[in-house]
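Annotated sample (chain length 698).
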Amino acid sequence: MSMHVHALIVEDSEADAELLVRELQRGDIDPDYEIVATPQAMAAALEERPWDVVIADYVMPHFSGLDAFKLAREKSPDTPMIIVSGKIDEEVAVAAMLTGAKDYVLKNDLKRLVPAVRREIRDVRLRERAEEARRHAEDALRHAYEESEQRIAERTNELLEANVMLGREVSRREQVEQSLRESDRRFRALVAASSDVLYRMSPDWSEMRWLRSQAFLSGTNAPTGSWIEKYIPEEERPRVLAAIEESIRNGSVFELEHRVVRQDGAVGWTFSRAVPVLDAQGEIIEWFGAASDITERKRAEDAAAEARADAERRAAEFQSFVASMADGVAVWNADGDIVFVNEACRQMLGVPPDVELETVSHQYELFTLDGEPIPEREWGSRRALNGQELRDLQVRIVTPWKEAFISYSAAPILNSAGDVIGATSVIRDVRDQLETEHQRRDLYEREHHIAQVLQRALVPPMASMDVSGCSVALKYEPALAEAEVGGDFYDVFELSDDRVGIVIGDVAGKGLDAAVSVAAAKHAIRSYAYIFDSPAQAMKVANEALCKTELGYGVETNMLTALLVIIDVQKGTMTCACAGHEPPIVRRADGAIEEVDCGGIALGIACVCEFEDYVHSISPGDTVVVVTDGITEARTSGANLFGREGVKGYLARNPEVALDDIPSGLLEEARSFAGGQLRDDAAIVAFQCCSDSPTCEK
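Output written by the structure step:
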């Protein structure tokens, strides 16, 4: 049966996000999902609705997986979180799991994604059902107990009053008879109104004289000596008979909770109470009793006992877990004194084993990571004692024995009335983490600078150019201004006096890896275009070369899309070889819009692969436009794409726009369609054969 899941996907790559969605769908999960790539978008999504699971890329340009999990824990702490990453080592995975991640999955091996999602959602739902069952059991126990106690007290008081009245008036026969008649009248009224069981027994309990019951037990008006076999389960009889003998011997009230055979044949529980009726000499002449159905109360008590046992077991497991934790744990009382720390906390703070905890409470100071002292009222323990919850605060702590950099979370401990009776904190040593983050920032800045320089060299900065009788207009724009370094590329080069080569393509990813990949792909295709007259042959040889060479360093795939177009101005032809890229769109000089038919497999997938030359006529005044998928896959908040129809529509609506203005105008229309922001890098090349070139043959 398909599982419907509300999934929040934190991923900067649309393609990777779609892979995750398809993997969930293949695993028979129907995802209602939203894709976000920034802290602001993620925070808004968490505020807007509850989510069953958060799936986050661990490495994103300006928003790490750890930041995503910290934000999810702050906004929705009960929502399970799963890492998805291209590569992740064990240390990073452990850090992510400590931050709140429930599991991690590699992008190149997504088969664990569906089981992980199903397991986490199933665990959350089991916990919710267990908590609901516990609350219901406690409510039922309390209600049954209070109701039973009230009924028993009421019935017992009435019976005791009747017995006292009879004892006082036994000296006068007339008064006794009158009292008996009055008592009998009240008794009959009581029996008629009572929902409990009422019974009368012989002095030695050998005979039940009668039993009146509304529904709980089978009633009888005829005396019977086999009542114990009828009403008492065999294993319960010794205990019941022992209690009866004790009451007969002492002349005391009989009271006992015991199992009983109900009217429907099932075994239930009853609370039975009987008082002795005495004659004038003080001898017992019979027993009069009442029994209440306490089956539901006993069930509730059993459930509560089981819950207590489970709680005690969990407490023992928790204590064992805390003792073995690598993270430090500390507990404060309401006065702000430390009353418990585990061994990891002692070692983290350098506290010797012989130092009393009361001493530690007043022998440390906290500073920000920048060295500013933190006032005591702002300490996590003090704020938790004021009812606040804090998560992942990073500080420098100084004790008489050690200085440490820690990350800690703190929360108040509440009693059943909701009053703060203490506070607890979980502490983690983050010195190595802070040093690693500092090194990572330095490395990222260096890589980013190198990639920017490299891409500026790879993507021609000019907006337009003239070459071999053709005018060319160019435009490149990253999805985010701060990213700048993407995988889209284009190139325009002169092959001879009458032939021009145009290359446009898209390498997966961003950053230095993407920039290096662009360099390899761009120059491979360009080099072979000089050697071979056929674009298809140039693309084939470039593919073989790229399959044997890693594109960039550290990337996990050589796959890229590309389009090579050779314009022969003298012949009036445009020859295309396509490797999985968007085909060209032509606006003829008379305004007609044509979609060029060409296709082929992406580069880097199969080393042995054939490509085809697609030849089309081109005349002076014809405008040819090629784009990357950042334009065609621009989308609204829903699933509507700008698509190739959007490109054709723009060209059809703007026949008078100058060639140099087409890329900027097309980019602006796609951006407007997407709500003001493209989700992927975009590259656009537009070119025309100049009108003063030789007329092309049709």
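Annotation: The first helix runs from residue 14 to 26.
Annotation: The first strand starts at residue 3 and ends at 10.
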